[in-house]
Every structure is written in C-alpha cells, then in structure tokens.
Amino acid sequence: MPDTRQTPIKVGIGTPLSRVDGVDKVTGQALYAAEYVVPGMLHGVIVSGRIAKGRIAVIDEAAARAVPGVAEVLTHRNRPHVAWRDSAHKDELSIPGDPFVALRDDRILFSGQPVALVLADSFEAARFAASLLDVTYEEEPHNVDFDLSLAEKTLPLWKRKSFHAPKSHGDADTAYAEADLRHEGEYRLATEHHNPMEMHASTVHWHGDGTITVYDKCQGAQGVRDFIASSFGFRSKDVRVVNAYVGGAFGSGLRPQYQVQLAVLAAKHLQRSVRVVMTRQQMFTHVHRPQAIYSIKLGAERTGKLTSMIHDATTSTSRFENNLEDVVTWGMINYACLNMRGEYTVAPRDTYTSSDMRAPGAATGMTLFEIAMDELAYKAKVDPLEFRLLNYSDEDAMNRQPFTSKALREAYREGAAAFGWQGRPIEPRQMRDGREMIGWGVATGIWDAQFSKTSARATLLADGRLEVASATADIGTGTYTVMTLVAADTLGIAPERITSRLGDSDLPTAPVEGGSWGAASTGAAVQLACRSVAERLLKAAAKVEGQPLAAASSIDDLVFADGRMALRADPGRSVAIIDAMQAAGLDRIEVEETAATGLRGLVSQARKSRKTHSAVFAEVRVDEELGQIRVTRIVSAIAAGRIINPKTSRSQILGGVVMGIGMALHEETLADLRLGRWMNHNYAEYHIPAHADIHDIEVIFVDEPDPEVTPLGVKGLGEIGIISVAGAIANAIFHATGQRHRSLPITLDKLVA
Amino acid sequence: MIRFDYARPADVAEALRDGADAQAAYLAGGTNLVDLLKENVARPTRVVDITRLPLSGIAEIEGGGLRLGALATNTRTAYDERVQADYPLLSSAILAGATAQLRNAATNGGNINQRTRCYYFYDVGTPCNKRSPGQGCAAIGGVTRIHAILGASHQCIATHPSDMAVGLAALEAQVRVAGPGGERVIPFGDYHRLPGDEPWRDTTLQPGELVTAIDLPPETFPTHYTYLKLRDRLSYAFALVSVAVALRLEAGRIAEARIALGGVAHKPWRRPEAEALLRGQEPARDLFGAAADALLSGAKGQGANDFKLPLARKAILRALEQAAAGTPQSQTDKRIA
C-alpha cells in the first residue's frame, strides 16, 4: 500500500487516503458527546433497576437528596410531561410495539432499566447520591430464558419496514424426503452486546430561549432531533443535535438511546444544561443482537446439487417491541435450488428489545447457514468451495431476479488463490503441526447494497478552499474521508484544501448512518453538489481572458485536477479554479444537492437484486486436548462494487473480520435466568478478541464494476466484513478436528467436555 | 462510589495509624480497588494511599532468597534479572496476567490482595455473601462458568483471580506483614483462605495490617517449571484453569515437586499428597495422571463450570510435561507448547 502521508497530486476515488480526522482523534481534538463542557451544566447519574419485571413500590430519596450539591432526583413521579401517545416516541428506525420511554411510569420491563436520574453540580456528588437511592420493588415472574420463550414464538402482524418475508418455491418437503443426500441440523447463536468503545452519552445545552443543543452519541443526528421534538414537545427547529464524532456504534446508536431521553427530561425539568453518560455496565442494559436458533434441512442430488432447503429460525425480542430481522432469506437468495421454504418467528423475553447489530440478520442467518452447507458438502464428499460453486446462482434465487452485479465467483477464485486453498485434503483431521490440528474452512457472505436519499452542500471559496457538508455520521467508518475523496475527485482539489463537515442536524438532510448505505449515499450527494459547483465554475471561466475553455459545452468536457480545469481534448488549455472565481468576481460558490433514486433507479430497484458478496477463508489451529483454538489466517475476498478509499475500506473489513472472530470464539452475554439479568456486563468478562487472538488477515477487493447499483457504483462495506467469518471458522474447526460445532461461540468448554 | 477520607502517609508507621480503622482501605496501583469503588462494591470510609511508602525495592535476602517490595510493580518484578534467572516461574505467572498496561500500574502487594471476579460480587444488584455478609450467594445455581470446583462452601463459590499468587504458592513464598502488633511472616499457603462460613475474608490479614514485602525462598527452580494458563481469550482474561509447576530433577528423577492450580478455588490450590506422589519418580504420563487425580480429589462442578474438571486434569498433565521437559509455556508466543 502506498505511503499516503505524501499526498499525490491527483487524489480521488480509489486513492488510499489516511483518515482526514485521524490527527484530531489521536490528539484529543475530536470531541465526543460526553466531552462537551457547557457552563452551569449538571451531571446526571443513572440509577439502574435490580429486577427484571414488576413495579417500583417505593423510592426513598431522602439520603440522596441530603448530599450537598444534589439538584434533583428525577423519577417517574416527578418527571416533566412526555407525550402520552406511543407514536410520539417512534424514531426513524422504530420497531413495531410500544417504544421504551424512560421514567414513563412505575412498570419495570427489563433488568437494569433506568429508575431514576440523580442530578448534581458535580459528577462525584451525583454518583455518590445515586449510590444512596433506596428503591423497593414489587416483583413479578419473568422469563429471559430463550428456550422457554420459544413456546411463545410468533410472526407478528406488524412488521418492521426493513423486514423481508421469506418466499417459498416448489415443494421443499417432498423434495427433501426424496433427496439422495439429506442434512438436518439445529444451529444457535448466543446473545451479543454491541459494546462500542464510547459509552452512550448526551450533553444537553439549555440555551434558555426555548432552544437546545444536544451533543449525543448516535448514528443519526436528525433522527434524534425529530425524536426529541415529538417526545418532549419541542419544535424541530429549536433542537440541534450534534454527533460530530462517534466512538463506534455497530448499530447501538441507530435508535435514540435512553440516556438522551433522561438528559432532555432533566434539562426540561430543571431548565438547565445536563450531561448524562452511561457506565460500561449500563451499556449491557439496552440494545443487543438477538439470541437465535435456526433449524435447517438440506436435500441434494448425489453430486451435491441442492434440491431442497427448509429454513426455520427464531430470534429473541422483548415483550414490548417486535424486532424482526432478515435471518433465513440470505441462503435462499444465494443458492440455486428449485424447492425452498422459509419460516421465521420471534420469541419474547423480559429484556430490552434486541435490535440491529452489525449485519443484523445476515451475521446470524448466513453465518449459521454456511455451517449447514459445509455439513452437506462433507456428506456429498465434495470440496466445500467446489460445493458452493456447484450450487452457485447467477440470479437472486429467492426473488427470482437478476443481480445488478455479482462477482462472488471472482471472490471465491481470488480468495482461494491468496489463501492457497488448492490441495486442501477433503477429509477432516488430515493436517497437524505438533500438538495442533490444522483445518481450513470457507464460507460465503451476502448483504444488501443499499442507497438512501441524501443531501449535501458544497461551498467553494475564492481562495480555492472547499467545504462539503451533510448531516450524516462518521461512526468510525471513514465518512469524513469518503466525502473528502469524492470532492477531491470531482473538483480536482487537494484533500488538505477540503473540509468535510457532518454529524450536525443543521446540515443538509441525511438518513441515519447504518445498513452500509453511508458511503454510497453521502458520496453520491457530495458528488452531485460538487458537479453543480463545477458547472458554475465553467460559467465563471468564460470571464477569463482569452476564454481557454470556450470549447467545453459541459463539465464532462473538462478534467479537474491540481486545482485547475482543463479541456479533456486539449489539456494545454486550462484555467485555475481561483482564476475563474476572480474573473467572475465570486467570493464563494455554494450549492446544495440531493441524491435520490430517480425513475430509472426505481425501475431497477423493482427488477433487480442488489447485493454485496464475500468469500471468507479461515485457517485454525486447535489444541484438542486443551480446547485451544487459534485463528491463524483469514482471507476475506469482497465483491462490493467500487471502492472509494481502499485504505479505510480495508480497515472496515479488518474490523468486521475481528468481530467475526469474536462471534466465532468469544462473544456471549450470559444471563442469570433466576434474576433475569445479564451477568458478565463489563469488558473484563464479556470477551471480544484481544490482539493476541488476531493473526494474519488479508483483505481482497475484487473488481466489480456496477454503474447500476448506486450512482457512484458503490455498494457499501459496513456489514459485509463480519458476515460468515464465524461460519468459515466453525467449518475450519471441523476440518481440523472432525468435531462439528453448531452453537456459537465455540468456547473451550465445548471442545473439552 | 461513596465519599471517603484520603490519607497519604510517608512511612509504614504512619500508614498503620491511618489504616487502623476497620473501614480503611490501602491504595497502591489501584487497578482493582478503584474498579471496586466505582461499582460500589468497596465502600471504605478512608482510602490510605501508600504509594509514597519506601516499599518498592527488590533486594537479595541475606542467606538466600529475594525480597519483593509490596510496592514494586508487577512489570518491574517480572523483568527483574534475578527473578528471571532464579524464579522464572514467577516471572511467567505475572506476565500471564492482565495486560502490559495493568501490570505497569499493579503492585505485588495489590496483586495478591485483589478480589474475586465473581460476576455477582461485582454487581450490587445481586446478593453476595462476600460483599455483604448474610445476603446469600446468588452465584450458586446461577452463571458459574468462572467459579470454583475445589474448596467452595455453601456460602461462596468464588475463585481467586491472581496468576502471580499461583506462582508464589508453588514457590512457597512468604508474606511479610506489618501491623499494630508488629511484624509477622505468613507462609504463602496460609495467606489466602477458603471461604467457609466467612467468605468476606479473602486472606488471613488482620484489620489494619499491611503487606510490606513478599519473600522468595532460597530454593530456585530455574529450569523445570511452567505456568500454563487456559482462558477464554489469549490476553486480558482471567484463568479458567491455570497450573504452576516447579520441579527439581536429579539424575532423571523428580527430587522436588510443586504444583499449584489457579482459577479453581478461593486460593491457589495445592495438595501435599499430589506432590509427594511425584518425588523420587521418573517423569511419566501415568505418574502425572495420578498426581493430577490426587490434586483434584474432591473436585465438584457447579453446572456451567463442570468442564473445569476434565480441563484441569488435562492442563495439569500438559504442565507437568512442559516442566519435566524444560520447555516452559511462553507468555509471548501464545501457542501452547
């Protein structure tokens, strides 16, 4: 990879550029939600409930209120008015049901529920007083046991907008009964919590004139603005939400989290500025990846060609909202099979509502399905990679639609070559090094390539500096850098002359950052805005003496590079951007544009399937006696259309792979079923991989030109990196040991028991 | 976190005066105490900051052995040349623990006094006899993945989390303590205790007593040793099972043997009869199996930690093999030898 500290002359789409916000982050200049200091601000400390279900009987506040510096103890009894209609508390990505409203009443819906907010003029006083609050409960029977909750599993009538019901084809049951080869298995995934590095936090600046500014850890500033307005009775224009920097989220910031509710409630109640920061332990009291069970039946001809697939999955949700994810559809879309049937249900537990965590549904469903496919490959005595190629589908097999592009075959080929897959022994337990058994596994990933209507503004100043702005978020994904690169590409301005602004609800409209649509959508909006600037520059260039660009009828006849615009046909004829501005007497050019799906795009969306794909290869080394698994190599070959920034893109895939290793071996939130409470609620006992667990990871982006999928041909990378990594690892463990593990994570007890 | 007084004594005598109150807590590296304060688990009325005390030296003891100051950091101790040459087991055990950042802050006295990592002990929303005597033990019948298989009581099934302590137990170190009644020396095997009916007491330290040093005895185990730690990830995780082994081989036979287990009990677990089985014998897998069985005699799972029984047996076998072969487990290359 080239050294990007020395910026090349023409930087644009495809240039591996270091994060433009990197220096601010590593030098502490980048402020996060909990770091804004507002004069006169109160500190709020959340008191978390002890029981899983019931009512608050008594709250003894006397000792807490007696602590010097305590301003208020906010509970359901003295909170200010909040909208009574559930619909007022819906957010951009709401889940059908009754959204959780902090301090709404005395009902306890889940363990760790916030029951009070103690406010004081110092954090220390608030924390001390919070420890003195004495809450008595009336407990009711609860259930957090997923297996018990399966008795109540259901497919609710009201579904999330993002949910796609599985479509059945042919007669899967008969085909399964008549198949030469049959495989049946039950696969499981543990509950996981998102655990971004930055805890959820909100700092509310109460301006005193009816307006507030809220610095919030979230993935969508405008979504939180609208939520605050409708929940707490503000006019939308009186609320500004800022999330300029977000220390990771993985989906936990898609919906407004309860700390922002508490902070705004308290600010409104006391008419003062307030900061509320969750503790790491409180990060385990809200959103999480649902626990899952997935029963799979596969039938095939003797050759290994699939003839039937029957999917039946259930994931956990809460009792107050129904979180539906696309779990079983991925395998049905991905493989050619004439007979397929899919069932999907959710099962309610007395926990907070599960919701989107990196690659929601696919990280669960496709990962587990790829373990089942591996099992059938062994039954067919076909190499697992060959087996996938044998069942390759050039169309979306469930929706029976062509893809805008699908370079999965190339991903398999390039990934296998880089990994050295050829010559892999087909039987398990064939490779050993000392005490360690070695195994190689493969799995396929698939995710939606989405696009969402987004606006951006470009402002060019007379001195040639450019600002591009959109209300999108950068949750560590590299959006600042993507915006800079697209602007540099379009206008030929060096990145250091460009400022990207985002994470502010006052900026041009953008959707919440998630679902892997950020780069495709924001990138398109920035490009549109910059093209409008270019058009105005071309007009301005007419004022330049000698009219060197007179031959250009549109900006497509121009090349923008090095701060100049030149005729494509005759590069010797060019005008510097600042000369054009000066000649036309312009201080600035400012335009706002909106990238939306046009008519042609809508037709394409109706007729074609748009997906990102990956081929993941894993090597594991297993000390069977001691149950030690080391993932010594991963190759992740990604087909995701056009790559704007190879450097941050690679980082994003590396992060996804590491998270996938965690899913395979480490991540599991453990519940005490009697207490209805997550117990390993801290970084020491909830395990994600440490550096020592991570070895070689190679990322390959295969060539996949796709002008149809989104305006820039970008498919997005936020989710694809994690999907099926754990499947490849589970498959490699089988290849190493002959032990098939169908329940993730594969912790050492499962090997030695 | 509750409010507390803060004292920063300059010498041991002053520290003992400041720490005489039963509700006082000594603060050194703070890597465990501060966490416990933040979680409302530790609720001292006075915090006695002992970091200014002159207890950070590492010095040879007249007549043999090495004195590790209570305030010497784990990092300094692990990389001390004399520790590395003569007591590499201790160095290895320390480096198996926590992370480099934590070891840089953590002290020797603090390490052996760290509290259990039992989920319930750490969560004031649940009952715990260790935290609040008489509340009951929620861990029993609950999430027991990390809990004890040996020496537990009906009041507490917590384990001691220290790696360093397991090495010190095998080396038969001694803990030097200053207290209101003067100085005393506690053999390491008597320092930590089993929970019994008083699970809130982790050690035999008396109120107001302060650890001033840990003495390593003259006998060194420079070659035939290992510290094997099995855990849920390869760094920054507490042991599910760990094994410290120190052997002295003479003419192909085991002349002296020490085995201590971590992650399985309220204290580093040793059994003299297991070690006696090895003495005078030639190293062999069957012999190691017999020693493992003796060491694990009476072991009982709590349900979710039943796997620790076979895991501990296999770990003991592997550790004895590593030590006998003179191929100790590396703490940098995480591959298990």
From TrEMBL, chain A:
Entries under Pfam families matching the protein: Ald_Xan_dh_C, MoCoBD_1, MoCoBD_2
Domain of life assignment: Bacteria
InterPro entries: Ald_Oxase/Xan_DH_a/b (IPR000674), Ald_Oxase/Xan_DH_a/b_sf (IPR036856), Ald_Oxase/xanthine_DH-like (IPR016208), AldOxase/xan_DH_MoCoBD1 (IPR008274), AldOxase/xan_DH_MoCoBD2 (IPR046867), AldOxase/xan_DH_Mopterin-bd_sf (IPR037165)
All residue ranges annotated as the Aldehyde oxidase/xanthine dehydrogenase a/b hammerhead domain in the record: 27-141
Record PANTHER family: DEHYDROGENASE, XANTHINE DEHYDROGENASE
Name the UniProt record assigns to this protein: Xanthine dehydrogenase family protein molybdopterin-binding subunit
Automatic annotation (TrEMBL), chain B:
PANTHER family membership: OXIDOREDUCTASE, XANTHINE DEHYDROGENASE SUBUNIT C-RELATED
Protein name per the record: FAD binding domain-containing protein
Keywords, sorted A to Z: FAD, Flavoprotein
Domain of life of the organism encoding this protein: Bacteria
Organism: Rubellimicrobium aerolatum
InterPro entries: CO_DH_flav_C (IPR005107), CO_DH_flav_C_dom_sf (IPR036683), Diverse_Substr_Oxidored (IPR051312), FAD-bd_PCMH (IPR016166), FAD-bd_PCMH-like_sf (IPR036318), FAD-bd_PCMH_sub1 (IPR016167), FAD-bd_PCMH_sub2 (IPR016169), Mopterin_DH_FAD-bd (IPR002346)
The FAD-binding PCMH-type domain, residue ranges: 1-221
